[in-house]
Amino acid sequence: xxxxxxxxxxxxxxxxxxxxxxxxxxxxxxxxxxxxxxxxxxxxxxxxxxxxxxxxxxxxxxxxxxxxxxxxxxxxxxxxxxxxxxxxxxxxxxxxxxxxxxxxxxxxxxxxxxxxxxxxxxxxx
Length: 125
Fold this sequence. Notes:
Layout: H1 17-47, H2 56-70, H3 74-105, H4 108-124
């Protein structure tokens, strides 16, 4: 009794090839989606965020954009840079004053929570 391996009945249930192919395709698709999401979140997406307007890098980019798009003369560039620097100093002063006024109205526990909120907001940027 010589039984050929191809003719031997398979123990257990056999798998439908269409089901196996569909599951493999779904697994490959889902794996690609997860890997793509991780790459976008960890590497590519974070690099593409422009700097915050109030940061020194954001200010420099904004000024360079003005110079390029408005085709400013050197004299205009100097004057506009001075005006923008005054604005950014004013902006930082208003933010600082507002923060200190808010903190004066809060209890010590609320101040701690407020600082946490500000820190979390800064980390999002």
